[in-house]
Hints:
By secondary structure, the protein is an alpha/beta fold. Helix content is 33%, strand content 27%.
Amino acid sequence: MKSVDKQSVISSEIRQYCTGLVPGDVGKYVLLPGDPERSDRAAKYLDDVEFIGMHREHRTFTGYYKGVKVSVTSTGLGCPSASIAAQELSNIGAEVLIRIGSSAALDPKIKVGDLLISTGCMKNEGTSRFFVPDSFPAIPDLELTYMLISQAKKALEGSPVSVHAGIGSTDDSFYGETPEFIDRIYSYGCVNLDMEASGIFTVANKLGKKAAAIYSISSNLKSGEIYYADGTKEEDNIKLANGWETEIQIALETFYQYENLKEHLV
């Protein structure tokens, strides 16, 4: 007896199993925060926004940014749920995905509240192995990433907030990142740690979609600038929250620019 192919069963024509979404619920452009509450934060920048629904960890809104239909769907923590969101959103019409969220920096030059754009990920997670061999790289779409970096630099010109870009490590365990692990990953040249990007990049690449990632830096595990150690550094909380707001606006403007310039892209 032949086993069932889940992808063929959960097709674009039915309600998606994990997100609860159906065709027409989302636009071609989708923001992917991890935290469901951050979906609300992003939704306030959209016109004619509609709450589509919440199923499991996936909270979705759809509206318009400068006339471009944009959605925001939370992924929850980690590559398993993030890759499911990317897959199901792609099933029903999403074409361009930008992960927004927080990340821990490793490069000592990167400060809390700075922005970081991923140029690739070391796959310290198990989800992508279901799609590609370990030797296959997890990289974002280069054109979309270039536009995201350019828009971030333009938006923050003259600001004390810096924009960084580099290769990070996507990990499965938030609390498994020991000092020894952090030192080893940093020795490879990785500039940050996250828990979702490599899964999103891998699925997007397999499906022929565009994906990128931008982060507000929550801490630096090499320099010791860690506000969440005791929760009392209100200044760093403000820096991080401001970073969330800024990265959302940068990602939305990148969607708008991409929509208007995509006919010139290869």
